[in-house]
Amino acid sequence: MASYPPAIERLLDELTRLPGVGPKTAERYLFALLRQPSAGLKAFGQAVANLHETILNCQRCHNFDTQSPCRYCRDRQRDQQVLCVVADAPDVLAIEQTGVYHGLYHVLGGTINTVEGQGPEQLHIADLLGRIPKEKITEVILAMNPDIEGETTSLYLKKALAPSGVRLTQLARGIPTGGDVTYLDEATLGEAITHRQPT
């Protein structure tokens, strides 16, 4: 049976570990990389190799940045009593680009997904619960995607946060069901933040 040289097979295997990358997409990526000039390929490899050396996980909110605490946690001009809870780090940037939210963040590191074996224990939920009384948070905005996993996570968080007495809100439902916070246009996401609703 015909196969690629070992070096190509090895890279294809690594590429298919990325979410949403199947064998055909991995092949397209690989051959796009092979068409790059040597200097471009080296720069790409160096950028990937440097990720763990230059990018840190914020110890407070779990966002990625070059420092910990991250730029948002360090900014004392932000509202220190409002916390926006998102599934993943790209959601933070998407919300920031709306220009309407000026509070703090908490990145869960995913959503509850029993099919993939990801429960509340694998997420940064315990840290979130600890931040509420410690930082005197008065409002928590649940900014989950309106899909099954996002709704499941939101429901779990509502129950877990209820004893704290914190005001719970969620994004207004201008976001289509099945939509992804990361890829919404700024106007839609900005409206959803501005018109957030009590949960």
Walk me through this protein's architecture.
It is a single chain. The chain is α/β, with parallel strands linked by helices and 199 residues long. The protein has two domains: 6-54, RecR Domain 1 (Helicase, Ruva Protein, domain 3); 77-198, Dna Topoisomerase Vi A Subunit, Chain: A, domain 2 (3-Layer(aba) Sandwich). The chain has helices at 6-15, 23-34, 38-54, 71-74, 89-96, 125-134, 148-161, 186-194, and strands at residues 56-57, 64-65, 79-86, 103-107, 139-142, 167-170, 197-198. A five-stranded mixed β-sheet has the order 4-3-5-6-7. A two-stranded antiparallel ribbon has the order 1-2. Helix 5 (89-96) links the parallel strand 3 and strand 4 (103-107). Helix 1 (6-15) packs across helix 2. The radius of gyration is 20 Å and the shape is elongated. The protein starts with 5 loop residues before the first helix and ends with a strand. The relative contact order is 0.11. The mean pLDDT is 90.
Q: What structural class should be given to the helix and strand makeup?
A: alpha/beta
What oligomeric assembly is this protein in? single chain
The largest pleated sheet is described as: 5 strands, mixed
Number of strands: 7
Structural topology:
Elements (H helix, E strand, L loop, with lengths): L5 H10 L7 H12 L3 H17 L1 E2 L6 E2 L5 H4 L4 E8 L2 H8 L6 E5 L17 H10 L4 E4 L5 H14 L5 E4 L15 H9 L2 E2 L1
Parallel strand pairs: 3-4, 3-5, 5-6
Antiparallel strand pairs: 1-2, 6-7
Helix pairs in contact: 1-2
Label this structure with key terms:
single chain, elongated, 7 strands, 2 domains, Helicase, Ruva Protein, domain 3, 8 helices, 199 residues, Dna Topoisomerase Vi A Subunit, Chain: A, domain 2, alpha/beta, two-stranded antiparallel ribbon, 5-stranded mixed sheet
